[in-house]
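tokens incoming
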């Protein structure tokens, strides 16, 4: 296989939708995910430190879900694996609320629909997501990166710009690089902000500019985004 065809093959493979967390189907799975989600939400409401999720244990989660410990281990090897599934399910639910954006639509529409919805959800549930990242930083962050990179490539006007880049790296690898930077920036914002909901419009604009300038977009494309009407601020 030639170097060019090998690269094209990698492109086709990496452009596929992200693979969900592999867990067996079963009636006891949903109660476990719901239980740990509720426990993390309640911990957040009490103002518990999201970086100290040690209070979560298999016995309490199984009791809350109404299942046995052996049932827990039928689906998950440990608490971090369950938290990963809960974070991914919540992230999937958020993306389901994002309006479908065709490649012909504008970057401004994509940013408004996708990042406005996503960052608002992250801000409203920031302690949940920070707890999930504290418990399982590698897997949870990887899931988020896969989702964002896939959406950049296949559901945004930035996809063709990323695809037209030259070099030994694939478009999927370039998209993952952009998505990884996005996840890191958003995580730092959630951890340090005193008013994340109030800062959503500012973060939307910041991510828009950073992604565009880092993707290989032309000066005209960048100028068009900067001159676009900013996203409306959330009512107090």
């Amino acid at each position: 296989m030639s170097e060019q065809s090998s690269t094209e093959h990698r492109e086709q493979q990496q452009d596929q939708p992200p693979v969900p967390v592999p867990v067996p189907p079963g009636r006891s799975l949903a109660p476990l995910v719901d239980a740990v989600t509720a426990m993390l939400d309640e911990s957040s409401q009490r103002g518990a430190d999201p970086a100290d999720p040690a209070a979560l244990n298999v016995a309490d989660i199984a009791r809350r879900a109404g299942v046995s410990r052996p049932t827990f281990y039928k689906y998950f090897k440990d608490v971090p694996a369950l938290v990963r599934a809960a974070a991914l399910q919540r992230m999937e639910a958020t993306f389901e609320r994002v309006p479908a954006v065709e490649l012909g639509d504008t970057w401004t529409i994509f940013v408004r629909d996708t990042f406005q919805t996503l960052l608002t959800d992250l801000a409203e549930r920031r302690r949940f997501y920070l707890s999930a990242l504290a418990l399982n930083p590698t897997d949870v962050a990887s899931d988020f990166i896969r989702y964002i990179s896939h959406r950049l490539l296949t559901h945004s006007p930035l996809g063709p710009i990323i695809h037209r880049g030259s070099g030994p790296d694939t478009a999927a690898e370039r998209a993952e690089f952009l998505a990884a930077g996005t996840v890191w920036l958003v995580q730092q914002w959630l951890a340090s902000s005193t008013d994340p909901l109030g800062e959503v419009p500012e973060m939307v604009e910041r991510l828009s500019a950073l992604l565009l300038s880092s993707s290989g977009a032309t000066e005209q494309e960048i100028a068009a985004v900067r001159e676009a009407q900013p996203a409306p601020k959330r009512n107090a």
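note: The CA atoms of residues 209 and 222 lie 7 Å apart.
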